[in-house]
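thought: fold this chain, then report.
action: predict
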Amino acid sequence: MTTGPVAIHAASGMKQEEYLWAASKLQQIGVQCPLPADLPRRAIIGAVDVVDIITESDSPWFGGQCGLVLENPRPVEPIPVVGELGYFEWAESGTLDPPKPWMAKYDVGPDSGLFGELELSFKQPPEKPYGRKK
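observation:
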């Protein structure tokens, strides 16, 4: 790993427990997470500057052996890209991934049944699905 500008890739393999944990964390800071089917996957979705690499942090977003300190986020229109683990050279390819079957159960809206546009909420935050527990 190194510092400098990097592209942000949204993976195709988002699991339901990862989505629920992230949505609950965003809710705690007052941000409503988009529905899972609305999140672009298998695409470059932005760029950011990596300014430091750390091995410890009190951040609830920190997990694993090391973390990246990021600045200057820049969103872009999703660019379809097949991803890899870690840093990788990328080129536009294919299409965005379609929603996975589990994502359909979060389909809300004025025509989606009894509760209309009810926001996702949590009585108890879900357990962090990976990395260090915080």
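thought: worth noting. The radius of gyration is 16 Å.
final: tokens above.
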